[in-house]
Design goal:
With 359 residues, this protein is an alpha+beta fold. It has helices at 2-14, 47-55, 77-81, 102-110, 138-153, 181-184, 186-196, 198-213, 220-226, 229-237; strands at residues 38-44, 60-68, 88-95, 120-121, 124-125, 131-135, 164-167, 171-173, 255-259, 265-268, 272-273, 281-282, 291-296, 303-308, 314-319, 329-332, 337-341. The chain is built from 10 helices and 17 strands. It is elongated and about 60 Å long.
């Protein structure tokens, strides 16, 4: 399917509609030399489909389609498609770490793929279409491994995760007609994406997660009845509770923290630390898939807001001044959380997390 659509694009290139496919490509590590930016590299099947979800994120400077992981220098698309070069179709995300975190990019990545498919991605089969995370440094490696481990432990998928975590080698930019393909050829892109099976799978998996957790949408009136005024102000109106005058800022008991509205697991006491701010602080989420991040420009500042996925509750903000290995500080309002002590996990329906506190 993709090759048929590509042939149409090549025909347009001959007519001047696309850039010359024979133009020499440069390694992305030598391009986009913006100071203060970092890079993340992901393979998730067809790179046409992987560009748009990242391009719309605040803090992302550029998304470049290319090839990496193989042995041939400066390969062409046709060579990579043959499956003999060892390369993956991949994207390189250039981003401002002050505006969006690497963990947030990983969360977006996992939501675009079937991580259990080791033979390709959706309709596109072959090693060049496998999923992988290519780390640029040891910090990215640690964060990626933790992210994959937690996704596997979440039991969302009933098969082992096949997505590999690999050291990044040379990354070669793809031909110009591949860059921003969804913008240059919107009708052809939509035709390919619709036939690829990607959206159908992602919709099915997303619905499955909601059913599995038994979460139903609640009206604002129902939520307001369930919560205290402070809980409602924080979770529904993006308010902030006073520091040092909230329920969990100094809680040292072992257990997990769940969303006050939906009950979805969010954080663990094992990742909690004293930040000195007067609010509960965590170095990572317990379940990254239950966390959403977005840019917050309120109060004349640019921060990264943290929300729960199912309930859409405002939780707090995440900052890049936390302890190792993540370097992150999730500064969370107590009013958005409910604490489940380790001894109550079984009876509260969170028995799967008991093993965290038995080591």
């Amino acid at each position: 399917m993709k090759k048929v659509i590509l042939a149409l694009c090549i025909f347009s290139a001959i007519s001047g509609g696309c850039s010359n496919a024979e133009t020499q490509k440069e390694n992305t590590s030598m391009s986009t030399q913006n100071e203060g930016v970092e890079r993340a590299t992901f393979a998730g099947g067809c790179f046409w489909c992987m560009e748009p979800p990242f391009e719309k994120l605040e803090g992302v400077v550029d998304v470049i389609s290319g090839y990496t992981g193989g042995h041939r220098v400066n390969p062409t698309y046709e060579e990579v498609c043959s499956g003999t070069t060892g390369h993956y179709e991949a994207i390189q995300v250039v981003y401002d770490p002050k505006r969006i975190s690497y963990e947030a990019l990983l969360d977006v990545f996992w939501r675009q793929i079937d991580p259990t498919d080791g033979g390709g991605s959706f309709v596109d089969r072959g090693p060049q279409y496998r999923s992988a995370i290519f780390y640029h440094n040891e910090e990215q490696k640690v964060i990626a491994e933790l992210s994959k481990e937690r996704l596997q432990d979440s039991k969302i998928y009933d098969k082992p995760l096949a997505t590999q975590i690999l050291a990044l080698g040379p990354f070669y930019e793809a031909e110009q007609y591949h860059q921003d393909y969804h913008k240059k050829n919107p009708m052809r892109y939509k035709q390919y994406r619709s036939a690829s099976g990607r959206d159908q799978y992602l919709k099915k998996v997303g619905k499955g997660k909601e059913d599995e957790n038994g979460l139903k949408e609640s009206s604002d009136g129902e939520i307001k009845k369930k919560l205290t005024p402070m809980q409602y102000e924080v979770t529904q109106k993006c308010g902030t509770e006073p520091p040092f005058q909230n329920e969990y800022w100094n809680n040292k008991k072992e257990g997990i923290y769940v969303d006050i509205v939906s009950g979805e697991p969010l954080f663990s006491s094992r990742d909690k630390f004293d930040s000195g701010t007067g609010w509960p602080s965590f170095m990572r989420p317990l379940e990254p898939g239950n966390i959403m991040e977005r840019q917050d420009g309120s109060h004349l500042m640019t921060r990264t807001e943290v929300k729960s996925k199912k309930a859409d509750s405002h939780l707090g903000h995440v900052f890049k001044d936390g302890p190792k290995p993540t370097g992150l500080r999730y500064c969370i309002n107590s009013a958005s959380l409910r604490f489940i002590p380790k001894e109550d996990l079984e009876k509260e329906g969170y028995g799967e997390y008991k093993s965290l506190f038995e080591q």
